[in-house]
Automatic annotation (TrEMBL):
Binding locations of substrate: 9-11, 173, 213, 234-235
Protein's name in the database: Triosephosphate isomerase
Lineage: Bacteria, Pseudomonadati, Thermodesulfobacteriota, Desulfobulbia, Desulfobulbales
Keywords linked to the UniProt accession: Cytoplasm, Gluconeogenesis, Glycolysis, Isomerase
Subunit structure: Homodimer.
Species whose genome carries this gene: Desulfopila aestuarii DSM 18488
PROSITE patterns on file: TIM_1 (PS00171), TIM_2 (PS51440)
Active site (UniProt): 95, 167
Annotated function: Involved in the gluconeogenesis. Catalyzes stereospecifically the conversion of dihydroxyacetone phosphate (DHAP) to D-glyceraldehyde-3-phosphate (G3P).
């Protein structure tokens, strides 16, 4: 049985004081779960502070991106070793904002994935189609291309450290959300593709999160879908009460 993962991506928000307070408030909302995990992805500048706040809890800390090398002349990047040094255990890679705004390619994202895995980080690997691609009937084509290129060179034994996050670009920060049927359809396709690329037991064990305007009002129906194993939450993760309700989703 796959354990749910509820992840909060804080993006470019929160000073140190704000981050410490939000992390503490989120920690209060987390009961002693045995069927779900919580992950916070704060900005690099406050990762150490957040890790310190949650050090005696089960909450995990992730970076919002990561380089593929442990050190070197990579201005503006953060290495897997640095992430682990400040208490991080995971990294988000391939987020739609990195793809859309910063023009990161599938090949660059693949470098990041393989580097993160090499240095022992859990990878939250993001994929998703734009509105034009969905309306053009290209959703599955785009998802397959992103997955095959993004996970190229990944060994089957490394897949235990990969979480996939399906985030339709048209539903991020827009207030729009894929219907539970649309989300389930995409997740089922992704799981089938992973089975084809690796093997069925890998697909059965891999967690696939939904990301795209997840809110306290829709989390229950999304989490009731058989192939949705958690959520990658943006805006709603910046409010402890809202994110707390998402973490404490009700099984339907």
């Amino acid at each position: 049985m796959r354990k749910a993962l509820m992840a909060g991506n804080w993006k470019m928000h929160n000073t140190t004081a704000e981050a410490r307070q939000l992390a503490a408030d989120v920690a209060k909302a987390c009961r002693d779960f045995d069927d779900r995990e919580v992950l916070l992805a704060p900005p690099y500048t406050v990762m150490a502070a957040v890790a310190d706040v949650v050090k005696n809890t089960t909450i995990q800390v992730a970076s919002q991106n990561v380089c593929w090398e442990d050190k070197g002349a990579f201005t503006g990047e953060i290495s897997p070793v640095m992430v682990k040094d400040v208490g991080g255990s995971a990294a988000i890679i391939g987020h739609s904002e990195r793809r859309q705004i910063f023009k990161e390619t599938d090949e660059l994202i693949n470098q990041r994935v393989r580097g993160a895995l090499k240095f022992g980080l859990t990878v939250v690997f993001c994929i998703g189609e734009t509105l034009d691609e969905r309306e053009g009937g290209k959703t599955f084509t785009i998802l397959e291309e992103q997955i095959r290129k993004g996970l190229a060179g990944v060994a089957p034994e490394q897949t235990k450290d990969i979480v996939i996050a399906y985030e339709p670009v048209w539903a991020i920060g827009t207030g729009k959300t894929a219907s539970k049927e649309q989300a389930q359809e995409a997740h089922a396709f992704i799981r089938g593709l992973i089975a084809d690329m690796f093997e069925k037991n890998v697909a059965d064990q891999m967690r696939i999160l939904y990301g795209g305007s997840v809110k306290s009002t829709n989390v229950d129906e999304l989490m009731a879908q058989p192939d949705i194993d958690g959520a990658l939450v943006g805006g709603a993760a910046l409010d402890a009460e809202s994110f707390g309700r998402i973490i404490n989703f009700q099984k339907m």
